[in-house]
Write a structure and sequence with these properties.
mainly alpha; globular
């Protein structure tokens, strides 16, 4: 996962060294490589590993024997996965200064990625516990619904992660092919409001994960539990 996070900035640095690229290139890397593609992939990879693998390998029951609140397990494991990914994302965005990103905007763009990852990771983990095909529903949300932010009315734009990420990052990137009869005017939310929404979505998702886990039968796993 660390290599996956560092790969886009590495490729971008090599491209800068060998080709003459315009300043818009750094926004392409940030928005397309990280915001659109990489964050959902990280959430989808980490979410099943966070809780579901413990259930499948029957190690979850052993951990729950220890006197601790049920909600502490998903939140604690999720927080560790988030911190691991966040550290590499911070490094990747910091390195973007070498390909032309304005240093003054680096902290803002770091925060946008980290808060969005927090919310997406929580939602992906929640889906994996609630739905039998939770990962599939998360894929639909991240890769099919979220990109529609470009053509959704203002009220529905606020139901996408893209809207809040771009509001915090202070920049938008579009290929320009969304102008047309279906294209809507892009709206922004204040940075503090966007940050609160993303943090709240992640916290709420982890709380529901804990409640769901406390009501699940974990003695058996997979098809055995369903049987």
């Amino acid at each position: 996962m660390a290599a996956l996070i560092i790969l886009p900035i590495t490729i971008a640095s090599l491209a800068i060294a060998h080709f003459s690229l315009n300043p818009r290139f750094v926004l392409t890397v940030y928005h397309n490589a990280y915001a659109v593609a990489l964050l959902p992939v990280l959430a989808l990879v980490a979410a099943p590993a966070c809780i579901r693998e413990d259930m499948e390998q029957r190690t979850l029951a052993l951990m729950l024997v220890r006197p601790a609140p049920v909600w502490a397990l998903p939140f604690g494991k999720g927080l560790l996965w988030f911190i691991w990914c966040a550290a590499w994302l911070v490094l990747a965005v910091a390195l973007m200064a070498s390909i032309g990103m304005d240093m003054a905007t680096v902290p803002q763009k770091m925060m946008a990625l980290l808060l969005t990852l927090w919310a997406q990771f929580g939602i992906a983990s929640l889906f994996s516990l609630i739905f039998k095909r939770g990962t599939l529903w998360a894929v639909i949300l991240f890769f099919f619904w979220d990109p529609l932010a470009r053509v959704l009315p203002a009220a529905l734009q606020r139901l996408t992660f893209t809207h809040y990420l771009e509001s915090i990052a202070g920049s938008r990137f579009s290929t320009g092919n969304v102008t047309g009869i279906l294209a809507q005017e892009q709206v922004s939310s204040p940075i503090y409001l966007a940050a609160i929404v993303l943090v709240a979505v992640g916290v709420l998702a982890w709380v529901i994960c804990g409640l769901k886990l406390s009501r699940m039968h974990i003695g058996l796993a997979g098809a055995e539990a369903e049987g």
